[in-house]
Amino acid sequence: MLRFVLNRFLAMILTLWVIATLTFLLMHAIPGSPFNNLNGKVLSDAAVKNLEAHYHIDQPLPIQYFIYLKSIATFTYGPSIKQPAQTVNDLLGRGFPVSFELGMWALVVAVLTGVLLGIFAALKHNGLIDYLAMTLAVLGISIPNFVLATLLIQEFAVNLHLLPAGTWQGLSYMIMPIIALATGPMAIIARLIRSSMLEVLTQDYIRTAQAKGLPPFIIVMKHALKNALLPVVTVLGTLAASILTGTFVIEKIFAIPGMGKYFVDSINSRDYPVIMGTTMFYSALLILMLFLVDLAYGWLDPRIKQSKEGSK
Amino acid sequence: MKKLCKNGFMLGMALLLVFVLGACTAKPNSSNEKSDGKQVLKLNNGAEPTSFNPPIGFDAQSWNALNNLMEGLTRLGKDHEPHPASAEKWDVSSDGKTYTFHIRKDAKWDNGDDLTAGDFEYAWKQLLNPSTGSPAAFLGYLIEGGEAYNMKKGSADAVQVKAVDDKTLKVTLTAPQSYFLNMISNPAFFPVNQKVAEKNPKWYANAKTFVGNGPFKLASWKHDSNMVFKKSTTYWDKKSVKLDEVDWAMVNDTNTEYQMYKTGDLDSASVPPDLANQLFKEGKVKVDPQAGTYFFSMNVKMKPFDNAKIRKAFALAVDNKQIVDYVVKQKNDPAYGFVSPGFKDPSGEDFRSHNGNLYKYDPSEAKKLLAEGMKEEGYKTLPPITLTYNTTDINKAIAEAVQEMYKKNLGVSVKLANMEWNVYGVDQKKGKFQFSRGSFLADYGDPINFLENFITGMPMNSMQWSNKEYDQLIKQAKNEKDDAKRYALMYQAEKLLIKEMPLFPVYFYNQSELQNSKVKGIVRHPVGYMELKWATKSN
């Protein structure tokens, strides 16, 4: 087990290095300059030169690459070009907790409701509840979250005056973003659970359990669900990494101070330090999540062994 | 029926969530006023300010707010002219080049420190210091020694800004230019509390350490989220300030901004593009002029625009009025000159009305000019023409309208190309485009700011135009002390620019916003930043 973890850890570092290098090459391959977007003003060459020197991007690329690798290794990304008063660590340090809080709630809501819907749909296969649940799921998948978000604001904030339209100041401000963010994943999870549940329920060991006279609740929750969860766990790794690091659109619509906007804005404004900060952060989180997923497999289904055979 | 379904669905979803969250204490604080009768204005800054360090935050999202936290030697009044502010008066030497400012005895920083001339000297030298990397540094080139220092050819000591004593600042300019007083109302010329800045170089990054000298004090600043300004108790003119508090949200989505305006969470909002037509028609939009021009630039180093008659034909074939009325639809004024209205010459006449419309839409004349130009160049057919713009909805719509007008009025097919802004900006500055969209927003309040962009080699001169007579006129104007003569030179220069037509204007910009009818007195200058000093909000 330890060996497995160590191996995976080394592979993670290598993966991160590859991602870092590709990101560096790609971001310098985009034409355009970070000093162009200053409110549509055209800067003189002298001003641009001063700015480039200030941010060390007048150095040759190989030197920049080493500065960049060093900053990744030491977690010091320096100041953002777009917001020079803030370092990248400042930006991520205040954006991530917000995105994480919102994302965590959305994940919890998505998993709980998704799993419940899926189970009910599977148990009442081809019944009314199944059709209702799956209609909801199809709607959830096909309505983009930004449409849902705008509709929610229009209904609950503007028409009914029940909830605040935007910004981030407490529980009531979280409700609509959580719904908007959770609906899509909930629908995916519900459909996955339904189909794998249907499959699991026909298996021999379930029949055995029924024959033993176990109550249906125990059969479903203890025996069937554990196996049916496998496909959900698979999608959950990537889903968690992307939801927890914030979503550009939802955060923009609800004016939530999360980190989602930096992914898009940094590239639009060629804010090199922020591009690498967000990319490395996201990659590290994603790799970690995938690792956790692998560990969870072993717990959910002991038939999947990741220890000795894999590493020898 | 549709609506019913939608509501049912939403309600279902909401109930589900309420169930999951267990306890839901949904109490939106959308009440408009705080009950204690305080005047609290709720504005949206759109995004996190770039920086509150005066020489760095060279954009509206920093300086609209900063303009109310700090104050320069002068401040623009309700008449958009510079008035004494931190400086209570000033003397100008007889050659018009040396200004001696006398700073108010009661001018204070909001931490209680005295505002000194040294704070201005410190701040202005920081603006010009090349290692500051200020994008606004060029504004300080009017100060003797400023350009050399910023270009690393001089030194800080050679910059002619000197604190003679604690309350007297002496500045020598490279040329006698009366708009200097307007220019120093700009946030780039705000003072910096030297004592504070030397102790903490990042004093501007947080509310706790920020020190200002303006009508409002930065009470709290939650980055990326909101700011609270409270009326300053140390400001020399605090009796003029009526608002108790300004709450700034940072909402980047115009639809959400509009919805928050509808629910009373904001007192002012920008006009969402999707609703613009309707809101403008209903007369709900407040429109203020803005000094700036939307134009098209024709590269005189590329065929066929090396021919003046062909350039002129392309200008005369575009109906600016139609573009303004049916494409932009935001109550802009069509432009037939480059300098926008709002600059008065010494006789009190507006620059624009004095020079008037320098050309007019005339499709038959355009056609004639095109034929003549083609004959001069020996063209049977015109070389292919591509009109390039940076990608936005409005630019696209205008470019398509222009394309249609050329087809109809000149029988010429123009190709359209678009590019993302950053790439576009770099390529345009290099003069890579044959025919491209340009925009100019004034940095300080004088026509010379518009006209100086087109002398040889300026970064805005993407048309690669070079005209000795024009360069000379601008040079003379920049050295002319007598304002009447200076304006005469600028009138002549603009006429020459439009006669040679390396560019043609389309319309003058404006500022449009929705505003709560209880709010009065917010001043939006054509050149300059939002002014809340005189704003009020009735309950």
Automatic annotation (TrEMBL), chain A:
Q: Write out the entry's keywords from A to Z.
A: Cell membrane, Membrane, Transmembrane, Transmembrane helix, Transport
Its BP terms in the Gene Ontology are: transmembrane transport
Family listed: Belongs to the binding-protein-dependent transport system permease family.
Localized where? Cell membrane
The gene that this protein is the product of is: dppB
InterPro entries recorded: BPD_transp_1_N (IPR045621), MetI-like (IPR000515), MetI-like_sf (IPR035906)
Domain ABC transmembrane type-1 spans what residues? 96-297
Q: Which organism is this protein's natural source? A: Sporolactobacillus terrae
Q: In its UniProt entry, what is this protein called?
A: ABC transporter permease
A single GO cellular-component term on record = plasma membrane
Q: Which residues cross the membrane?
A: 9-30, 102-123, 130-153, 173-193, 228-250, 280-300
Q: Which domain of life is it from?
A: Bacteria
Q: What is its main location?
A: membrane
Q: How does it sit in the membrane?
A: Multi-pass membrane protein
